[in-house]
């Protein structure tokens, strides 16, 4: 017998809506895209940057992969970390993150955090729904 999982039976196309808001500088990036979701991962492309999000109960790992950079985040309820890598120069910067809010469920990710070195506060909201 052939399993649906062999052919991607657990892959769901979803609508991805949300925003990344810099509360310190007042900048707001809103996105509305189509993505692919598996049991514990979401991926989509926005503004020529590929977003990959691995979702667990107690933490999430977000990777933003652009033409000249890779920006990775690890968020949990108590702490966060980020790495920014410039591809052309091979230069990498690690950043500590103070968490203010962490709310993850089946269809929503909401994270509010502060980059320690810059003291910039950000909000990230990602909501997922079925695509028809």
Short overview:
It is built from no helices and ten strands. It is mainly beta and 132 residues long.
Rg: 16 Å
Q: Poorly predicted ranges (pLDDT <50, ≥5 residues)?
A: 1-7
Counted by DSSP, the helix tally is 0
Largest sheet, order of strands side by side?
1-2-3-4-5-6-7-8-9-10
How many strands, which pairing sense, and closed or not: the largest β-sheet?
10 strands, antiparallel, barrel
| Assembly context of the chains | single chain
**Tally of DSSP β-strands:** 10
Q: What percentage of residues falls in helices of 4 or more residues?
A: under 10%
- Give the end-to-end Cα distance, rounded to a whole number of Å: 29 Å
Let me know the average pLDDT.
90
Explain what you see.
By secondary structure, the chain is mainly beta. It is built from no helices and 10 strands. Strands 1-2-3-4-5-6-7-8-9-10 form a 10-stranded antiparallel beta barrel. A hairpin with a 3-residue loop joins strand 8 (91-104) and strand 9 (108-115). The chain is globular.
List keywords for this structure.
mainly beta; globular; 132 residues; 10-stranded antiparallel beta barrel
Layout of SSEs?
Layout: E1 12-22, E2 27-37, E3 41-46, E4 49-55, E5 59-65, E6 69-76, E7 79-86, E8 91-104, E9 108-115, E10 120-130
Antiparallel strand pairs: 1-2, 1-10, 2-3, 3-4, 4-5, 5-6, 6-7, 7-8, 8-9, 9-10
């Amino acid at each position: 017998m052939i399993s649906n999982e062999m052919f991607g039976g657990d892959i769901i196309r979803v609508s991805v809506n949300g925003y990344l808001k810099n509360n310190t500088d007042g900048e707001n990036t809103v996105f509305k895209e189509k993505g692919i979701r598996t049991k514990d991962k979401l991926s989509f492309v926005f503004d020529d940057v590929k977003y990959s999000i691995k979702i667990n109960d107690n933490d999430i790992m977000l990777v933003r992969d652009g033409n000249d950079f890779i920006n990775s985040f690890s968020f949990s309820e108590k702490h966060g970390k980020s790495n920014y890598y410039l591809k052309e120069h091979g230069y990498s910067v690690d950043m500590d993150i103070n968490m203010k809010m962490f709310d993850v469920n089946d269809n929503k990710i909401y994270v509010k955090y502060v980059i320690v070195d810059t003291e910039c506060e950000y909000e990230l909201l990602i909501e997922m729904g079925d695509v028809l």
